[in-house]
Design goal:
Layout: E1 3-8, E2 17-20, E3 26-27, E4 32-36, E5 42-45, E6 51-55, E7 60-64, H1 70-75, E8 78-85, E9 94-101, H2 107-117, E10 119-120, E11 123-124, E12 130-131, E13 140-145
Parallel strand pairs: 6-10
Antiparallel strand pairs: 1-2, 1-7, 3-4, 5-6, 8-9, 8-13, 11-12
Length: 154
Amino acid sequence: MLNLHLLVCQNHECEWHISIPLPTHPDTSRHQPWWPMDGLPRNFLCPKCKHVFEYKSSEVLPVSGGYKDQDLVRKCNNVVCVEVSCGKAGCATPLQIHILIARGQDMYEEARLALQQAIPHDVLCQSGDAMSGPLQAGSILSVRLDDDWERGNV
């Protein structure tokens, strides 16, 4: 039996289920073992519609057993954190976007391809500037496996 933790895409035209792996250091103090201990919101890119929204731990749906897309979930289990420039003049802090990458895929190439189509919706950079609309070409600053989430085979 497969236990999953899902985020429902906030794009009302999509509503795809974004499956997230377990965190490496779960937030057991607040009884939220499906989210990292810091409890902070994360920006996730929907793999289906390419829209980016901020998600909070309270938006995770735990699901057990018979989920219809189990094979897809097993393959896309690495959370990659992509930092992009904020886009606001004079702001030096990055915007972080989390992307699910399948095992064995080149995370740099997959991030580049995903962000070509990404559309953030009021997501915040680390200084609190909100960004909406398509990203600018060449805005990727870094790509890394996110240590806050367990990894599949890369």
